[in-house]
Each structure stands twice: as structure tokens, then as C-alpha cells.
Design a protein that fits this description.
Elements lengths: L3 E8 L3 H12 L4 E5 L5 H6 L1 H21 L16 H25 L3 E4 L1 E6 L2 E6 L2 E12 L3 E3 L11 E2 L1 H4 L8 E5 L3 H12 L3 E5 L11 H13 L3 E3 L3 E5 L5 E5 L5 E5 L2 E4 L3 E3 L13 E2 L2 E2 L12 E3 L10 H15 L13 E3 L4 E6 L2 H6 L4 E7 L4 H5 L6 E7 L5 E8 L6 H9 L4 H5 L10 H10 L7
Parallel strand pairs: 1-2, 1-6, 2-3, 6-19, 8-15, 9-10, 9-15, 10-11
Antiparallel strand pairs: 4-5, 5-6, 7-16, 12-13, 13-14, 17-18, 20-21, 21-24, 22-23, 23-24
Bound molecules: flavin-adenine dinucleotide and nicotinamide-adenine-dinucleotide (NAD).
Flavin-adenine dinucleotide (FAD) binds next to helix 1, strand 2, helix 2, helix 3 and strand 4.
């Protein structure tokens, strides 16, 4: 096979890698991307997109179950629905397939050469790829490592059989009767909620004192309330100890130190993700580490000249949009543009029920950073649109500096608030002050009005509460 020489080689076609390659191609850089599985990486194939498809299907099903129960005030009467999960999964797979082709098409349009296979460094400028037809050598002036992340496995609960990761959970063709979720973070709660809505009896085993410990307690309270309403049992300060000898049950050490056995058809382990730093010859390079991750500077440059790293392999927050922004940045740097990582905030959205959005600093974080602050808080219970959607739970909270009213952070919890993340992100990125948000006409009736009202409230000028 003839060797390939190029200006840029990207390893991994997840959101970090494929965006980097597309942008580089657009800028006229001779670019090659290597992917061992399918284009789109974790996000598109076994992450963001399939999980949101499943969450949507579960929500629709649960809505009809609720309507059929006759306990709804809307006056709608219907009979109990049925769920064919294998068809739901087939539908999810068609969306994934369309997006796989979409990514391939975009790479092609940008004149990026795609090589299918596993890449491995020989040295800092040379990579060999095991392809279906043989070994391909690629020499590159610049290499971007975008190898992503993989689920963390607990030594006491190795994956296999009834113990599954999110990847298998997203392809189950029948709803387990009893599902135990180990880890009450992003994935555990998003998927645990979806399976509970589809009819599984779900128990969440979380090691920390509360679920979603990365968010503050005020934000997660409506989620806890809803988990309870859905019949999900949450055990906090609890540790999974391993499978019971007889099988079919998980042994859990509870907060009090006693051991309980939880019957389970499936055990979904979602205790975090680890960077993929093995299997591609990292030992051939001299890369500094940042804990388990690859260390990078504000240009996503590693400790070796000409080698960049982006996305989950470089650490938290492990989010697709961070990976994409880093990918775009690196492509432009390689094209000679003057760019550094100068983002003010990376929005985080948890697609639980209700959803959580957090952009920038919380009040505690802002205070710790030395700012005197003002906080405006507006509940959806006072928002007309939320009432008409039976979504009165939750609030929008804005945190700003007390002296010049610069907005430092915006958080919300409520039905459908993921879509408010765009407005929140824009406000912080553009350096908005409370007066900018308060002075912007927000369409009525929308949940976005709660954003404006939270700013008005922090200025002592609230109108609707
Ligand atoms: P990845 O997407 O992991 O892609 C890395 C790619 O590199 C893979 O395709 C892999 O096959 C390839 N690769 C690795 N090694 C090699 C090699 N040696 N040779 C060739 N190819 C290689 N994030 C959000 O922002 N929003 C969400 O709603 C969200 N939901 C999620 C739900 C789940 C269930 C999971 C698991 C994750 C979710 N995430 C979400 C996280 C998101 O998927 C990741 O942050 C994102 O995919 C990281 O992108 P990446 O490009 O760094 O790596
Ligand atoms: P996570 O870090 O969100 O949650 C892991 C949870 O497991 C934590 O609450 C932790 O305290 C708990 N835990 C750790 N060890 C445990 C143990 N032995 N027993 C019981 N609990 C234990 O991790 P995740 O849910 O696996 O998700 C991984 C990453 O994927 C996230 O950090 C996030 O970056 C990304 N993700 C994002 C989204 C989104 O943006 N909506 C959705 C899913 C995943």
C-alpha cells in the first residue's frame, strides 16, 4: 500500500476529530482522518444522539400512559399504549445511520481523505493504520489525537452478561423488569429515567450524598422529586459490591454499612468515562499527562510540537460541544490563524426530567472567586407558558457581579430548558449585564421570559412575581 503524506492527520472521527477535519479541509489543509469504527464517535453512535432518541421515545410513551390513567386535567381520554422497544431501537438506528452518512458526506465535501482502521503511532510524525486490506503508513506534519473516552468498568462488576454499559443499554430490545443503575450522574439518570418511563422498576445506587453531585442541590431537587414520582428508588452513599453468588442480584453496601441484595435483570454501570490513552502507541511519544488525561495548553497543543489533542481524551468537561469547539480551534491554528481557547463558558445540559442547564458560575463558585454577587431567581410556577405545558416545576437563576452587574452564570431546571442554553451561553459569551437581559424583549408566552424576569428580579424590578 502506498504511503500517504499530509499536512494534518486526525485520529478519531468523533465530534472533536470530524469537526477538526472538516474545518481544516475548508481551510485548504491537506487532511486525513482515521477512524476504526463509524464516523461520529461516541456522541453520534452510542452517546448523545441515541440516548436522546431513547429519552424522547420514553417520554412520549410515558405521556400516553399518564393520559390513559385518566389522572390528567386536559380532558384527554385514551387507552393504555404498548411499547415495542425493538422498533424504537430500529428507529434510533436509522437516525444514527443518517448522521453517519451525513458526517462522511461533510468530510468528503471538505476534501478530507478518510481511512478506516485503527491508528498507531510509530513516532511523532508517522502513524500506521491497520486497514481491512493491509497496513497503511501515514506521515503528517501535524497530528491531532481525538481518541475520545470509554466507560469506566468497576473491578467488582466487569461488563458482560447482565452487567452492561450505556452502549448496550442503548440497544436493548426489551425493557428489563428490574434495572439497577450504578452511578447517579449524567448517564445513569438520563437512561435510568427513560427505562423507568418505559416500565422498568429502576433503582439508582449512588456513592455520593446526592444524585448529580456536579450540580448544586437547589438545581437537582426537582429531578429528585420526579425520580420519586416515577417510582425510582435512589440509594445514596451506597456502594456496589458485586454480584450475589447465586446471580440475578447486586450486593450493595448501604449508608449504614449494612449489605442489601437488589434483584436485577440488568445492571447498568455508569460511574464515569475514562480517556482512551491506550491502543494507539502513546508509549512511542513523550506526552505530559494531566491526571489520566493528555495535558494540553490553551492552543490544544500537547507537550510535543506538532501534536495536538482535543475532546474527551483531554479531560473534563467531557462534552461533545467542547470537543467540537477544540477541533475547530486546532484546525484554524494549523491554518496559521491566531487562536487560543478564550471561551467564557461551556454550557452543560442534563437531559433528565426536568432538564438542567448550567452555564458559567454558580453563586457559590462566584463568591469563592472573590466577587460580591447578586442572584435573581424566577420560578416556572409564575410563568404562563410553563403552566400551559404542565411544567411548573423548576426555575431560572442568574448570578451577576454586584458592582457592574456582569452576568457570571445562569442555571435553570425545568421542562425543556435545554433549549434555553443557547440564550444563556450567548449572554455570557457576549459579556451581558443584567440590564441587557432585562432590557431585551422576550417573546410571550415562552419559558424564556423566566430568564428576563430573573434578571429583572436581581435588579429589584420584577414584574410577574
Ligand atoms: P469520541 O466521540 O469518543 O470519539 C473518539 C473516536 O476515536 C471514536 O470514534 C473511536 O472509535 C476513535 N478512535 C479511538 N482510538 C482510535 C484509533 N487508535 N484509531 C482510530 N480511531 C480511533 N455529550 C454532550 O455534550 N451531550 C450529551 O447529551 C451527551 N450524551 C452522552 C450520552 C452517553 C450515553 C455518552 C456515553 C456520552 C454522552 N456525551 C454527551 C459525551 C459525548 O459523547 C463525548 O463528550 C464526545 O463524544 C467526545 O467526543 P470526542 O471526539 O472527544 O471522542
Ligand atoms: P458522571 O461523572 O456524570 O456520573 C458518575 C456518577 O457515578 C457520579 O455521581 C459518581 O459519584 C458515581 N459513582 C462513581 N463511582 C461509583 C461507585 N463505585 N458506585 C456508585 N456510584 C459511583 O459519569 P457518567 O454518567 O458515566 O457520564 C460520563 C460523562 O459523559 C459525563 O461526565 C459527561 O461528561 C458525559 N455525558 C454528558 C451528557 C450530557 O451532556 N447530557 C450525558 C451523558 C454523558
Amino acid at each position: 500500500m502506498k504511503d500517504i503524506s499530509c499536512k494534518l492527520l486526525v485520529i478519531g472521527a468523533g465530534p472533536g476529530g470530524y469537526v477538526c477535519a472538516i474545518r481544516a479541509g475548508q481551510l485548504g489543509i491537506d487532511t486525513v482522518i482515521v477512524e476504526e469504527r463509524k464516523p461520529g464517535g461516541t456522541c453520534l453512535n452510542v452517546g448523545c444522539i441515541p440516548s436522546k432518541a431513547l429519552i424522547h421515545a420514553a417520554e412520549e410513551y410515558d405521556r400516553i400512559v399518564h393520559l390513559a390513567s385518566g389522572q390528567n386535567p386536559l380532558g384527554i381520554r385514551t387507552t393504555r399504549p404498548e411499547l415495542d422497544l425493538s422498533q424504537t431501537i430500529a428507529w434510533k438506528d436509522t437516525i444514527v445511520g443518517r448522521l453517519n452518512s451525513g458526517v462522511s458526506g461533510l468530510l468528503k465535501k471538505s476534501k478530507v481523505k478518510m481511512v478506516q482502521g485503527r491508528a498507531r503511532f510509530r513516532d511523532g510524525k508517522t502513524v500506521e493504520v491497520e486497514t481491512e486490506t493491509g497496513r497503511q503508513i501515514i506521515r503528517a506534519e501535524n497530528v491531532v489525537i481525538a481518541t475520545g473516552s470509554a466507560p469506566v468498568e468497576l473491578p467488582s462488576l466487569p461488563f458482560g452478561g447482565t452487567v452492561i454499559s450505556s452502549t448496550e443499554a442503548l440497544s436493548l430490545t426489551s425493557v428489563p423488569d428490574k434495572l439497577v443503575v450504578v452511578g447517579g450522574g449524567y448517564i445513569g439518570l438520563e437512561l435510568g429515567t427513560a427505562f423507568a418511563k418505559m416500565g422498568a422498576k429502576v433503582t439508582v445506587v449512588e456513592a455520593q450524598a446526592r444524585i448529580l453531585p456536579q450540580y448544586d442541590a437547589e438545581l437537582t431537587r426537582p429531578v429528585s422529586k420526579r425520580l420519586q414520582a416515577l417510582g425510582i428508588d435512589v440509594m445514596t452513599r451506597a456502594k456496589a459490591r458485586g454480584m450475589a453468588k447465586a446471580g440475578g442480584a447486586l450486593l450493595v453496601e448501604t449508608e449504614s454499612g449494612s449489605e442489601v441484595s437488589l434483584a436485577a435483570d440488568r445492571i447498568l454501570v455508569t460511574v464515569g468515562r475514562r480517556p482512551v490513552t491506550q491502543g494507539w502507541g502513546m508509549e512511542e511519544l513523550v506526552l505530559d499527562r494531566d491526571g489520566p488525561y493528555i495535558w494540553i495548553d490553551e492552543k490544544c497543543q500537547t507537550s510535543m510540537r506538532g501534536i495536538y489533542a482535543i475532546g474527551d481524551v483531554t479531560g473534563e468537561p467531557m462534552l461533545a460541544h467542547r470537543a467540537m469547539a477544540q477541533g475547530e480551534l486546532v484546525a484554524e491554528i494549523i491554518a496559521g490563524h491566531k487562536r487560543v481557547w478564550d471561551k467564557r463558558a461551556i454550557p452543560a445540559v442534563c437531559f433528565t426530567d426536568p432538564e438542567i442547564v448550567a452555564v458559567g458560575l454558580t453563586s457559590d463558585e462566584a463568591q469563592k472567586s472573590g466577587s460580591e454577587i447578586r442572584v435573581g431567581h424566577f420560578p416556572f410556577a409564575a410563568n404562563g407558558r410553563a403552566m400551559t405545558k404542565l411544567g411548573e416545576e423548576g426555575f431560572v437563576r442568574v448570578v451577576a457581579r454586584a458592582d457592574n452587574h456582569l452576568v457570571l452564570g445562569i442555571q435553570a431546571v425545568g421542562q425543556g430548558v435545554s433549549e434555553l442554553s443557547a440564550a444563556f451561553g450567548l449572554a455570557i459569551e457576549m459579556g451581558a449585564r443584567l440590564e441587557d437581559i432585562a432590557g431585551t424583549i422576550h417573546a410571550h408566552p415562552t419559558q424564556g421570559e423566566a430568564f428576563q424576569e430573573s434578571a429583572l428580579k436581581s435588579l429589584g424590578r420584577e414584574l410577574h412575581i
